[in-house]
Write a structure and sequence with these properties.
The chain is α/β, with parallel strands linked by helices and about 700 residues long. Helices cover about 40% and strands about 20% of the residues. The strands form four sheets. Strands 14, 18, 19, 20, 21, 23, 24, 25 and 26 form a nine-stranded mixed beta sheet that branches.
Length: about 700
């Protein structure tokens, strides 16, 4: 196992959350350079770019405010933030070069597949005519230039788009004029598909379409020559509300920062070919300071649009389709609520269809045996079957309560809209808890006869997410668990009432304490010779208390095996500290999102699933729910999920605190891809189930 040389604390065993995030995002970039289907490589490049935008918009914005705060009582934190920004900037510059290389490689590979991205000066006569016609029909009226001299502060504009800085020349006149055009991506998309010809597909960036049409945009004004260069900027979106700062620091920073306003630019990327005089004029409009990032890039920016790159009918350049697996036991024409009352059930999306959860809600909405439905909603699909089922339940006289989180970042407007629709239908809507973001994923169904039912998930009740995120859902009628789920809703309505949870681990109440006790139990069992191990699958581990406790377990000889996707503050392989910790970071076609925790417990294994990662925000500042799993078949499946993740040598990389994301090597050179093997595993289970049923 590789050892880390990344020393980020006095003990050298804690990697800052934001540095670890940069390492994680680089892992996504590395996936775009691997021999996977070509259009999937483009998608990973888009994901990398989109992630980076959000990171600067939120995390770097927060660090910048801390660094600029004038309150002397947090001088140490301010100095650390300044140093961290410098480290991140250095990594960002390094990764930007790798990104540009990847873009060039993928573009060349597209040409080899007869997919051509044409520039404005590469068009045939027929293509020129098509582009002019496209401009007249689709773009005219949406490309509205603004003279740069008339712009006071460029940051008043949105940072979700790309801008062209245009230099306009007139023959016989030395002084050029300057204008800005915001690309109307929302109108027609980023990529314009020109007519195919002789088996070849031709596309253009919208940037180049507008470059070609500049004479039409500025028609009749006497300009004879045009230059256009792209740039984009990222603005300070907010001081992160669910931050990892100590209590009271948020208020001090908000009061102490004088120079930065919400909405100021903090990162600018521009075409390196942009003339210096033009660059200077643009920068003067952006109100930058010394800690902000200014990066020379290529001809095109906002590569997040690559996530929606046209497939040109080339399904062979994408991952083969994996249709959701039909679960025999849940697919019969019987009551799902009755099935859950008989025995615990589960689904693991996207391997299984999310529609089984929708069916539970739809049945509850019309069943005469159901009296109430309560659920938490964090993010919702644009056309949500979940909300439709809840509205239908309210119309059928059920008492429906929905806790909707209005602070789900970048989904605030959508959640507000859905809230109004539900309220109009008679749903009792609770808008979260002041000071505590509701991130738990729980549903409670109250029955008139028989035990109540609960669904507890690791991910949002969101049909779209369920097609690309791996999430696990327990459906249970176990009285202790279901009673605790009901109390979660009581706690949300009265967050400071003394509610005890007997089965569930609930934050911010006692989740962290219970996790610490579970780890302590493994340490004690190891010391007395009983079976002891910790195996888990999470998105992020950055909580200093949990990091320290895992080191304590490792020092005691407890094997700690982790499947992880994102931020990780652990440093593995440190003698006497973390020699027994092994972390496998997986990036693949599905976004790994489920949280699973398995403890040996002296031979009587304990399994848990839930919504919480091991970050301060999850354990201390949010309402999260983790449930024990008792059904032996479901526990066996959870072991399989974690085991497959730990065995992944194809998509897994070594997470050790250095950020290199090195691949695993095995003596026999065998390759194991966990997502593919899990899909096959579930297919085989259903085939056996059908065979048993037929016999």
């Amino acid at each position: 196992m590789a050892k880390s040389v990344n020393k980020k604390s006095s003990s050298g065993t804690y990697v800052d959350r934001d540095l670890s995030w940069m390492y994680f995002n680089r892992r996504i970039l590395q996936e775009a350079t691997r021999p996977i289907p070509l259009l999937e490589r483009l998608s990973f490049l888009g994901i990398y770019s989109n992630n980076l935008d959000e990171f600067f918009r939120v995390r770097i914005a927060t660090l910048s405010r801390i660094a600029e705060c004038e309150d002397k009582s947090i001088k140490k934190e301010s100095e650390h933030a300044s140093q961290l920004i410098k480290q991140i900037t250095k990594l960002n510059n390094r990764y930007a070069k790798e990104y540009e290389e990847a873009i060039h490689e993928v573009t060349a590979a597209l040409r080899n597949e007869n997919i051509f991205l044409l520039k404005d000066n590469e068009l045939s006569e027929d293509q020129q005519q098509f582009v002019r016609q496209f401009f007249r029909q689709k773009l005219s009226g949406f490309t509205n230039p603004v003279w740069l001299s008339a712009v006071k502060e460029l940051t008043e504009a949105t940072d979700d788009n790309i801008f062209l800085a245009v230099k306009l020349h007139t023959e016989g006149r030395k002084t050029p004029e300057y204008a800005l055009i915001e690309l109307p991506v929302a109108v027609c998309g980023r990529f314009i598909h020109l007519p195919d010809k002789e088996g070849r597909s031709y596309l253009m960036y919208l940037d180049d379409v507008i470059r070609f049409c500049l004479p039409m945009i500025f028609g009749g004004m006497g300009f004879t020559h045009y230059e256009a260069y792209a740039f984009k900027f990222t603005k300070d979106a907010e001081m992160e509300i669910d931050n990892d700062l100590r209590n009271g620091m948020l208020q001090k920073i908000s009061k102490g920062v004088k120079s930065r306003r919400k909405g100021d630019a903090l990162r600018v990327i521009y075409d390196a070919a942009m003339p210096k005089d033009m660059l200077k004029r643009v920068m003067n409009k952006l109100n930058l300071d010394k800690l902000d990032t200014v990066l020379a890039g290529g001809r095109y920016h906002n590569h997040k649009d690559l996530m929606s790159f046209p497939d040109c009918g080339r399904k062979d350049l994408k991952y083969p389709e994996w249709s959701p697996i039909i679960r025999k036991e849940l697919d019969e024409n019987v009551s799902l609520l009755n099935l859950i009352q008989q025995r615990d059930r589960y689904i693991h999306v996207p391997y299984h269809s999310f529609d089984y959860y929708i069916r539970v809600l739809q049945e509850a909405a019309i069943s005469k045996n159901v009296k109430s439905i309560k659920t938490t909603l964090y993010r919702l699909a644009k056309t949500s079957k979940v909300v439709n089922a809840l509205i239908n339940a309210a119309r059928n006289g059920k008492k429906v309560t929905v806790v909707i989180e209005l602070l789900a970042r970048f989904d605030e407007a959508s959640n507000i809209s859905w809230s109004k629709l539900m309220q109009d239908a008679g749903v009792h809507v609770i808008f979260g808890v002041e000071g505590l973001k509701v991130h738990s994923k729980v549903t409670h169904i109250g029955m008139k006869q028989g035990p109540d039912v609960a669904c507890i998930s690791t991910g949002n009740f969101h049909e779209g997410n369920a097609r690309i995120y791996t999430d696990y859902m327990l459906m249970t009628a176990a009285r202790g668990i279901v009673s605790d789920v009901a109390n979660v809703f009581n706690f949300i309505e009265k967050p400071y009432s003394p509610i005890k949870f007997r089965e569930l681990l609930v934050s911010p109440n006692e989740m962290k304490k219970k996790f610490l006790r579970l780890i302590d139990e493994e340490i004690r069992n190891k010391q007395v010779g009983k079976p002891a191990y910790i195996r888990m699958k999470v998105n992020h581990i950055t909580d200093p208390v949990m990091v320290k406790k895992l080191y304590e377990a490792s020092a005691a000889g407890v094997p700690v095996d982790i499947v992880l996707r994102g931020n990780c503050s652990l440093v593995t392989g440190v003698p006497g500290v973390s020699e027994t910790i092994r972390i496998n970071g997986i990036i693949d076609r599905y976004l790994e999102h489920s949280r699973i925790f398995i403890f040996a417990a002296g031979g009587e294994e304990k399994c848990f699933i839930g919504s919480a990662d091991w970050m301060p925000r999850n354990l201390d500042n949010r309402i999260e729910v983790v449930t024990p799993v008792y059904d032996p078949d479901i526990k066996a499946d959870l072991r399989t999920v974690v085991d497959f993740g730990l065995r992944d040598t194809c998509q897994g990389r070594i997470v050790d605190g250095r950020g290199e994301n090195l691949p695993w090597t095995t003596e026999d050179g065998a390759r194991f891809r966990s997502q593919e093997e899990l899909y096959r595993h579930y297919l085989a289970l259903e085939e056996r189930e059908r065979d048993v049923h037929q016999d």
